[in-house]
Amino acid sequence: MVDDSGLQALREAARLSPDNLPLRRHLADLLLAQGYLAEAEGEYRAALVLAPRDPGITAGLAEAFARQGAYGAAMSALEPFLAQPGYPPRMGVIAARALLGEGDLAQAGFRYHEAVMREPGAADADLAARLAAPVKAEPQPVDGPAEPYEEEVAARRSSVTFDDVAGMEGVKEALRVKLLLPTQQPELFAAFGKRAGGGVLLYGPPGGGKTHLARAAAGELGAAFVSVGLADVLDMYVGQSERNLRDIFDAARRSAPCVLFFDEVDALAARRSDMRQAHNRQVVNQFLAELDGVDDKANEGVLVLAATNAPWYIDVAFRRPGRFDQLVFVPPPDLAARAAILRILCRDKPLAEMDFEAVAKATADYVGADLKGLVDRAVEDKLRESIAAGRPVPLTTRDLLALTKSQRPSSVLEWLATARNYVMHANDSGAWDELLPWINRKR
Fold this sequence. Notes:
Elements (H helix, E strand, L loop, with lengths): L3 H13 L4 H13 L3 H14 L4 H13 L3 H12 L6 H13 L3 H14 L6 H7 L24 E2 L11 H16 L1 H6 L6 E6 L6 H12 L2 E5 L1 H4 L6 H15 L3 E5 L15 H15 L9 E7 L17 E4 L5 H12 L9 H6 L6 H22 L7 H8 L7 H14 L10 H7 L1
Parallel strand pairs: 2-5, 2-6, 3-4, 4-5
Antiparallel strand pairs: 1-3
Helix pairs in contact: 1-2, 2-3, 2-4, 3-4, 3-17, 4-5, 4-6, 5-6, 5-17, 6-7, 9-11, 13-14, 15-17, 17-18
């Protein structure tokens, strides 16, 4: 390790030879290794002016961002490379660290394991432990039955709370009453024969923040959070998908109080009448059986949340009392919520004086994912300006407003057209009454 006097000599050499790329890169790497993160960031920026597409320098800058907690900036620097096949594995590990910092455990795990698979030497024991990503056992040969295996579900504490969710007060209140209060005030609810547990189905247009809400509910409660994707359940071997579901629920019961979250649940809970394969119907049957539990106390303390963009495709049996008996519509953010989301997205970035309300007015029908995409694009443009200028160039209201002219809402209008058909022509049960005011308001 170079001591401070050696670093000072390198700093002076870089000052005298500002166009010496190997010298600047060497200095930046040493500063990063010794924890001088802000100074390392500056040296990497200066080096990128000399070599704008250098993957090693970009990776160093992204690592400096990530270690300072600027996870969005790290991902913005890495994304042009991550979109290309064969990107350096080190970038995948840095991206995993940034994604984990943003709370996206599933994508973080994917990036980390994909990188380590290509280059085992890139493994980071501390990061792997934080990810706690499960690894499936190899399937058995096809000439014999598959052996059941124990797959440990990753139950993590969520650092996100309702304070990190902009707007949606009605949705938060519904989750408090259904999921949080029975656990926080068990004596009061026990007096009325109510126990902690049960299920809520969140539905709405894509990108509206359903997954974020589920993490926030777990963080608000201080409970373990288990996020379940299709790959965690579905298996090519007959009977294995049902065993996977059973193992997931068993792990959640052992971790109670626990929020068990199923994303894109319509793929696991589709209407059985629409299914042509018998084993697909068995997965739905197993899901229903796990929601019921072996007795009326089996799922006590397990709060089951599910999210879908297409609730009308879910088997009606899931809406029976005791299962997903409460449907909660997660609407696109209104004007005030969009402004609040923009404030959250921009809070760790260099800013000029911002008029978030003006940007919110220009982003009607945007969901949270659209707003994040808008800010990310603006940040990418500012990073290019900053690299050329050799200093951070702050983000302005004008930057965001300019991008709204070319970026359109990704999903709300299409989703609304589909939802209107169900509300107007397939709502005999009244299941979609909650959508009526919103649809009428949008006309």
